Amino acid sequence: MKKVQFQSRWMPYLLLLPQLSIVTIFFLWPAAEAVRSSFYLEDPFGFSSTFVGFDNFIDTLTSTDYGRVARFTALFTFFVTFLSLGIALLLAVKADKVLRGASTYKTLLMWVYAVAPPVAGLIGVLLFDQHVGPMVDFFAMFGWPMQIGVDAFDTSFAMIVTAVWKQIPVNFIFFLSGLQGISKSVQEAASIDCRSGFRRFWTVTFPLLAPTGFFLLIINITYAFFDTFGIIDVIVKNEPGNNPVTLVYKVYLDGFRGNDLGGSSAQSVILMAMVFVLTIIQFRLIERRVHYT
């Protein structure tokens, strides 16, 4: 193997400098500032701060409102991850078998990938609008008068549907690539050994898709936690009231609208700790069941 030799010993560090600068300025510095602010009671205008120790963490963790938002975030993450992965896998399996018009079929499923989360939220608002929304009219035929922005369950349903619709194309692309990467000889051998297509999928195809599925599981949980901010912001119309919101959106509400910078910072630190623990669980427990060969 040919090795790349730099004439100057400082050249590798110079090439890494832009990326290290971005990570330091936009991640490490804000994270360190959030940890520092979580131990202080901050003046909303930044003129003074008082050290309060762990009071912000105690107030946050003992708050009934924070517990309600945490439970909704867990349910929201579960449904968005499970539904977006399940529907995308089903569509990818069907698309892999399409022989005529396959390109058109795949393009129709992928185009939503280019839609930004706030735009997806705006489309969700139009679909669930009380006056012109087709989804409201559709469910009204079954005796379900949806009231988005008024009823918490209806608002949660609209959020989950919009978030799932936005994420399906990403999962679809990866699942379809994974299916097309499975060797034809393996598929033919499986067809000879097992006539049942359903059983052949769960015993042969699905285990071979495990690395792709594990990667998408992490991506989808991260998406449900953080990247759905724009969708939620548009659907609750900046008037959360009793509407359900996620933990990330609550950090924004308490910090930028409630001017509780110390409490908001404590919530950010708790959220970072939760993501860290979740990542360890995923890689320590779930990855052991994934086989890459």
TrEMBL record:
Domain ABC transmembrane type-1 positions: 70-282
Spans through the membrane: 72-93, 105-128, 148-165, 201-226, 266-286
Compartment annotation: Cell inner membrane; Cell membrane
Database matches in Gene3D superfamilies: MetI-like
Pfam families: BPD_transp_1
Topological category with respect to the lipid bilayer: Multi-pass membrane protein
Organism superkingdom: Bacteria
Keywords: Cell inner membrane, Cell membrane, Membrane, Transmembrane, Transmembrane helix, Transport
Subunit comment: The complex is composed of two ATP-binding proteins (UgpC), two transmembrane proteins (UgpA and UgpE) and a solute-binding protein (UgpB).
Family: Belongs to the binding-protein-dependent transport system permease family.
Known role: Part of the ABC transporter complex UgpBAEC involved in sn-glycerol-3-phosphate (G3P) import. Probably responsible for the translocation of the substrate across the membrane.
Protein name: sn-glycerol-3-phosphate transport system permease protein UgpA
Species whose genome carries this gene: Roseibium salinum
